[in-house]
Sequence to fold (298 residues):
Amino acid sequence: MTTRPRNPAPGTPAPGKLPLPELAGMKRRGDRIVMVTAYDAPSGRLADDAGVDLILVGDSAAMVMLGHDSTVPATVDEMLVLTRAVNRGARRPLVIADLPFGSYQVSDEQALETSVRFLKEAGADAVKLEGAGPMLSRVRALTGTGIPVVGHIGLTPQTATALGGFKAQGRNAARAVQLYEDAIALEAAGCFLLVLEAVPAPVAARITEALEIPTIGIGAGAECDGQVLVWHDLLGLYEGTPPRFVKQYADLAPVIRDALGRYAADVRDGAFPEPRHTYSMSDAELALFEHELAEMHR
Ligand code: KIV
Fold:
């Protein structure tokens, strides 16, 4: 007999889910936190099988999944579909939905409405938003309502144009101090986790030391409490020159291209499908079928 309630209250973690407060415990114990992006159910399942702690359904989907050249075009409806799919595949990892550009910047109310959709309609465990300053009020509004929020500072791709492109941030003392202050303010506003993207390692290290909440680095050095990589970068699915901070653990694009090429050749020369890929019927049923056809065309 299961003790799980049939209709758990909204926000009740699924059985086996990593408890969110455990992340702070991991930081205290010095256990590194593993995060990866994912955008569909099989990837969610594979990340879960591999023991990944956190899955970010990043708005990087706009680029690596949908073919845009920035994250800006991602829409709430697109991100809801992807988040729901990842959530169907992943059990233990916490699933974090990236709020797309324009879905939270307008007002605290807009941020709340969008985030509620991600929790209710897509089963996200938390949401992520970019920036500090005016976004602190968004973080307070969301966390005040019980919605767990991940912050993201440094290179914030949604505002990459204003930052001068996809390039490292906080490389002079004044900008580094600003990042440090933003990190402290985001923690005070209620974030339970902070992503630091493309930030010099010593700056990320000082921020990590100053915060009680864990930091997750992407191009922010080894002193962060955890790391995140984009699925397609990690697996070699996104071709082109990867950013400096990417470590590629597999080179799957050529493997897939080769498999598709062999499939196409097999179809064209009749080598696929073979008898073992097809379904049979009894001689009697086949004879009856032929008889019925002959009758139809008499
Ligand atoms: O959208 C994304 O994938 C991200 C990560 C790079 C942190 O925000």
